Amino acid sequence: MATPNESSNSRDKILDAAADLLAERGVTQLTIQATADAVGITKAGLIYHFKTRDDLLTALVERMVAELDAQVGAPAPNDAKPISLRAKMAELTSFTFDMPASQKKLMANMLAAASAHPHLLPPVQALFTRSYEALDHGPKVGLAQLLSVALDGLLLIELLQ
């Protein structure tokens, strides 16, 4: 039986391969068998970690949300000094326009997956909620929220190109 570390490493390899397949081929081509083949394991080996394709998609969405939270998410609750509006907008602008093409393809296909599988939406919606709530302080709350929503729209346009 695999140790917890080996199991976690296998799970990460599976998620990496699934993310690559999703980015390259889209959600309709992401199957348990295609993912197992990409990792170089048996279908049964993959099913040990992810019982269904939906489980695999859910894990991909959860990982993407965690990565996005780490990149541009809300500051930690115990941060002594809140980030300035200018710094936050610069960070979001950079994230929107400097994203590698491979990440754009993956995010676009993840959005397509979420639209076809509504159970994938809550973690994404929670990410947006946390992002907007992080802007709910300071003297320019309205401006911060407006700019953030505008950047989200620009990100969507970037993803769809």
Automatic annotation (TrEMBL):
GO MF assignments: DNA-binding transcription factor activity; transcription cis-regulatory region binding
InterPro entries: Homeodomain-like_sf, HTH-type_TetR-like_transc_reg, HTH_TetR, TetR_CgmR_C
Protein name (database record): TetR/AcrR family transcriptional regulator
UniProt entry tagged with the keyword Coiled coil: no
Organism: Ralstonia insidiosa
Keywords: DNA-binding, Transcription, Transcription regulation
UniProt-listed PROSITE patterns: HTH_TETR_2 (PS50977)
Pfam families from the UniProt entry: TetR_C_28, TetR_N
Residues annotated as domain HTH tetR-type: 8-68
DNA-binding region as annotated in the record: 31-50
SUPFAM superfamilies per record: Homeodomain-like
